What does this fold into?
Amino acid sequence: MKFIVLRWPAATRWVIFALLACLALVPQAAATRHPRYGGTLRVELRESAISFDPRTWKPGTLESSANEKVAALVFDRLVALDNYGHFQPQLAAEWSHDAAARRWQIRLRDGVKFSDDTPLTGADVVAALQPLFPATIQLSASGNTLAVQSASPLPDLLELLASGRYLIYRAQPDRTLAGTGPFFVAEAAAPSSDGKTAHYVLKASENCWAGRPFVDAIDLTLGLPALRRLLDLQLGKTDLIELAPELVRRAAQENLRVWASTPVITFGLRIDASQSAASNPRLREALSYSLDRTTMANVLLQKQAEPAAALLPQWLSGYAFLFDVDNSLDRAKAIRATLLPSLAAAAEPLRLRVDASGELPKLLAERVAVNARQAGMTVQVMNRPVQRDAGAAAPANESAAGLHLFAWHVTSLSPRLELDAFLTALGQSDPSSVETSVEVGQLYARERRILEDRRVLPLVALPEYAGLSATVRNWLPARWGEWHLADVWLDLPEPAPSAANSPVTAIPQQLAPSGAKP
Amino acid sequence: MSFRTKLFLVFLVTVLASVSLVAYGVTHYTQTAFEEMDAQRTQALVTQFKREYAQRGEAVLQEVKNIANAEITLRMAIDLARPNADQSTYVRDANGAAQDHNLDFVQFVNSDGTLISSAQYPARVGYKDEWVTARKDWNDTPAFLRKEELPDGVELSLTVVRALPVGDKTLYIVGGRRVDQHFLASLALPEGMRALLYRNLEPNFSPTALTDKDGAVAQADRFQPLIEQVQKQSRAQSEPTAQRIDWTSNAAESETFNAIPLAGPNNELLGVLLAGSSQKELVLLTRQIVKISAAVAGAAILIGLLISWWVSSRITKPVEELAEGAREVATGRWDTRIDVRGSDEIGQLATAFNDMTRTLASQKEKLVQTERVAAWRELARRLAHELRNPLFPLQITVENLQRAKQLEAKQFLEVFNESTATLKAELANLNTIVTRFSDFSKMPAPHFAQVNINESLRNAIRLFEPQFNEVGKPTITPEFFLAEPLPEVEADPDLLHRAFQNLVLNALDAMPAGGTLTVRTSENNGNLRIEVTDTGKGLTPEECSRLFTPYYTTKLQGTGLGLAIVQSVVSDHHGTISVSSEEGRGATFRIELPQHQPGGISRPKQDAPAVRPLSTFAAASD
It folds into this structure.
């Protein structure tokens, strides 16, 4: 037998070796460029408990925003607003309205099924949305068509339906809610013994009308402290976290991926008549002038927030820049000097109750107290140990507070409706006047009237922050903070063949919805 | 109270006093020693407390130095020294430094006094802390106490400031630990001691400013005098002021508190540390000693009691034997002898007693013999005297009769008749004399019956009524002061009647010139008293003492037996008789008779002597 020996020049051998090495790396490199299915997205959130039932949410609260963020993974809306300001059909395939925008007709998408494989009907939509609307707005369904009849014009119905708690669900006999969204709740672990943490597992819905999400499941852990979440992200124990504003700089310094929404949370002071001194407009004016919002945003919050002079953020209203941040300590002192001692909180301090939970509201409240003291006014901060909603009543044995520090999360993409909800929650709305116009000038005039009365003093506007691991790809959230986790895929190493199907096959048959992949 | 009892009591009191004195002395001096020891212990604790406090300051100082020497701090200082440095970058650095170095308070202050970062009050960031930049020698300043402003009030802080110069700028690092209940809890204090802290943040005493390691202090008002005393004292004075506080009535619950003033950098009083030392151990120890002392004292007293009883018995037994012997001698047993034990004074006394009784017996025998002889002589003399008086007329009469033989028959007959009459009379007189003596010697034994004394007295006096108003003689007036009703007595009515007759007769003889005879009766403690008073010339004391002696009389014609008979009757009735008199003012005879006789009425008198003493056999009439 004769062997033929091929002899290659040395340089040629090296070239061939390099080419082979490149070919071996091509699939790996390709994996980082193209979406892929599989994997579990681990998410850690601040709130210790969430509710999937939109009827129980209190619009504007931070808790409600967390609920909305998670519920949007399970439920769908009729329409959605993309980052370019265009409404995109979701469960609604098309819509129309009359000239006065009082009657709307919405045709639902065909073939949409809930996670329990039952079809979506118009009656389901009416049952889900009608409890959220006032009595002046009536919904009716006829087959696959939904009719919305309002006593007053509803020009911004689509903005309303594209945000907040207007999600479509069906109440099951066991009082659980089924959705049409990309995920369904596969596991809800009981809260920890101290009630501070909870755990959910959301599985990908195989028969979602929008197609199966990339990740197989979302592992959701609730109630972890801010620093723990950050450390988990650093250590690779999680893929996506809610990042506390005070840790944003630290995360950035440590080269972590940080995402920020547009400013969606407004911290401010609400002044009511619980304390007589607080009813004095001159005192409110002095207090307003004493507030150093710029320092709050730039120093205390390390430039992670913006000084807020308006109730609605600039991105939502478009006119917020017209309001000035009127900080003038000298003017505050001058006004304070003109007040009687009894009105200047000299005898009895103005009590400032922190209605929002967390360290940041407390820090802001203390800064308000320091600012007020510089102007000669005494403000006593009353911390609230338990988490409380913005409009919740104080305990009976607690001294009445004239000042309240609140946090408001944008709840609607309609400036008019957002302002309505904001003022209603703060108890500043005027029931006699119903504003239906979406004209910017009228909204501006309305907001200016409110701000000039100084019963509501915005302090800072804060974005939502998220920390992401390097494996999270296709991260395309809405600017106003809505996470689109169905679009996210994980850049994981190629799984071994034996384990390739394990995340999917591990799903129990009764929980794994059947359906075609997109 | 017997001599033994007295002696026993004396011993007992002596033992009690001695034991009590010793017990008190032991307790007192022990307690004093314990108190001195406790004071020394408390002083040591206070010193330890101050040392501990100083060590805490050293610990804070070291941590602040560590912060100042850390690389991250140096970078901050360098960065902040640059123009237009972004101070917000370091807003949260104080938090990290506080956590890393286990400090409650950390602040970074820029050269111009601007607060860059604050762990305890981040809301103040951006404001000026000019007290930091006002001083330049921070690196030589040890830990000091200061008021730390916090969002929810003011706290005390053990603070250290260090300066970190970079170029012409300086970064100040202010670190401290909260001086509060946790600070107190971290102090290593010995058993029985506790520490309290008063935060002197208000001008007047505030109970809520007082805390211990567990928080608020119960009954904080009790500390007000001590705190106010410290507040009034000179701030520079660092000597502790002490006060004892009794929490309850139980002294073991008491505590002694030493107040240590804590001054700030400008010598202002910012706090008062109260080092409390429990009195429990001392009190319990003292109580234990008192208990032991009491037990020992009790045992000593018991033993002393027994020894006292034994010693007193031993001492008094010979004396009691002597007393018993004396009593026996008094009853007439002259041959009584007692045992002689030992040769001490008691033994000598017993020997002397025995000698005395022996001598007394001998002397008594001699005296009896002498008295018997004297009695016989007196009887012979009195008898001779009594008999001589009638014999002399008899002799004269007989001689006259013999001489009358020579006279005529008529004259002889006259003489003879006269002489025989005289002879008869004198013989009758002789017979009377003999009868009296015979009657006295035959004093009968009393036969008791219920007798009304008043009635008996009236009967006796009624017999003499003719003599009271006899013509030609001075009048005697009887007066009666008889108690009515007077209980009857058990007596022999005949003997009593005879005794009363003799008394009345004696009184009549005492009042030859007339007078008043007063008779009184009364009841006195179950006895009846009879008084017979005359208004005669009275008696001398010497006469009074011999008045009841048989055959003694002050009268020319008396036998000296009348009052002797009275005394014999009274004595047979277990009564007493006495006489009181002043010369010239008469005499009073007083008789005390018991209502009841030993043995009762029916029983004949058994104890009457079968043979009366010789002196009572003499018979005479007053």
